[in-house]
Amino acid sequence: MTVADVSGEPDRRFSVVPPRRARTRRYAMTPPTYFAVEYAINPWMDVSTPVDTERAVAQWEGLHRTYLDLGHSVEVVAPEPGLPDMVYAANGGLIIGDRAVVARFKYPQRAAEASAYARWMTDLGYSPVTTRHRNEGQGDLLPVGSMILAGTGFRTDAEAHDEIAAAFGRRVETLTLVDPRFYHLDTALAVLDDTTVAYHPPAFTAASRERLRALFPAAIEVGSADAHAFGLNAVSDGRHVVYPRAATGFGEQLRAAGFVPVGVDLSELLKGGGSVKCCTLELYG
């Protein structure tokens, strides 16, 4: 079995499909009770486009149910009025083991979310720390194996990467984004297991593309149609990959690489510039 690359040619890296093993995960999600598009801080947001909050809640509940059906646990963070983007829980910070770093947001419209997520972390028994420089949590900080892939270019300061490395005692690999449509790392790259990622090459600088190819020679390179459908804003347990079902080509690539694609519809939440991963903060063991 082979998987097609972005050119449509068979990718011989997956001529022998490796076994994929799921691992039970612990997630956190915030219901979109107050979700709205009241401002525009990314290219996906349009204040003139109506938002159906009931539909957004129904789609969010579908994602929540999907995780439970896959055997994972989900902590529900209480939403707060006046914070319409709080549904994008991934941006709240980074938690690994007994350590937690809370976000420091770029835009003032989201700044109060940091306090909300810090209170939640404290209630769970963490002692969250802050960074001096801007970081937008798991939007730009994605653990893979023993390292952390760290995005910069739009939201998270490169200087924060050193702070993250010190906080968690892990190697941090800096990746620079260049396309404003992919303003967070988790919109352009998905961690599939401890050694495999999928990403959209045009979202990165040439140097970052070269680094990704060196780190992950068996990575899945995803084409524009699926990337623009936010297909890479996905969550994997090592075998099952929950992703926006509109990214049909990516689903086929996942299947050919031995993963089990689980498509969901979060089209209403995409109006705010987020999808599956944006709505999911993982609590890493």
TrEMBL record:
Signal keyword on record: no
Sorted UniProt keywords: Hydrolase
Active site (UniProt): 184, 278
Gene Ontology biological process terms from the UniProt entry: arginine metabolic process; citrulline metabolic process; positive regulation of nitric oxide biosynthetic process
Entry superkingdom: Bacteria
Keyword Lipoprotein among record annotations: no
SUPFAM superfamilies the record matches: Pentein (SSF55909)
GO terms for MF: amino acid binding; dimethylargininase activity
Pfam families attached to this UniProt entry: DDAH_eukar
Family per similarity comment: Belongs to the DDAH family.
NCBIfam families: DiMArgaseDdahMtb
Record-given protein name: N-dimethylarginine dimethylaminohydrolase
Upper taxonomic lineage: Bacteria, Bacillati, Actinomycetota, Actinomycetes, Mycobacteriales
